[in-house]
Design brief:
The chain contains five helices and seven strands. With 178 residues, the protein is α+β, with helices and mostly antiparallel strands. The chain has two domains: 135 residues, no CATH class; 36 residues, no CATH class. Strands 2-3-4-5-6 form a five-stranded mixed beta sheet.
Length: 178
């Protein structure tokens, strides 16, 4: 997998100042290459524009495609569309000072390449909704939805009502009748 990851290392030292474009196809191999990835598959295109200046690099990430997720409602897999843009600034300094901002990275003056793969993963993750569900419930596995509804109704009907609440309900009814 190390050979696969080399494509995400941008060798900026030998490039002229100005804008440079890089394109990446994010798929199952990308997520397998990351030990910490919670995502497993997708089809995402990343257009990365790097503007090289004398004292910094400005990266503009344009991300679009789909990520394969499991629906939280029915557990079936579905494709979640993702689309977004992010900017990352890389500055150079003799000493590292990473408390500037999450959008600014400091590299040592002698650095010659920059790994954008981890940032691509983070940006894709930020584009995902918190709740992973089909856009419409009708797209869900209807057998599972039926089973969930039956289970939910059984749980509601089998709940025992606490006698204290019953007594409070009687007191409230008496107060409303007066």
């Amino acid at each position: 997998m190390k050979g696969y990851w080399k494509q995400f290392m941008i060798p900026f030292k030998g490039l002229k100042e100005g804008k440079h474009e890089f394109r990446f196809k994010i798929d199952e191999m990308f997520f397998e290459a990351l030990d910490y990835s919670t995502l497993e598959n997708g089809n995402v295109q990343v257009l990365l524009e790097m503007d090289k200046k004398t004292n910094m690099l400005v990266f503009n990430f344009n991300i679009g495609g789909t990520i394969r997720l499991k629906c939280d409602r029915c557990l079936e897999e579905y494709d979640q569309p993702v689309e977004g843009q992010y900017m990352l600034i890389v500055k150079f300094s003799e000493r590292e000072n990473n408390d500037l901002s999450e959008d600014i990275v400091i590299l040592p003056d002698d650095a010659h390449e920059f790994d954008v793969g981890h940032y691509i993963y983070e940006y894709i993750s930020l584009l995902l909704p918190i709740k992973h569900v089909h856009e419409h419930e009708s797209d869900c596995n209807q057998d599972m939805i039926t089973k969930l509804n039956i289970e939910s109704n059984e749980n509601l009907s089998s709940e025992k009502i606490d006698e204290r609440w019953k007594a409070l309900e009687e007191i409230r009814n008496k107060m409303n009748n007066n």
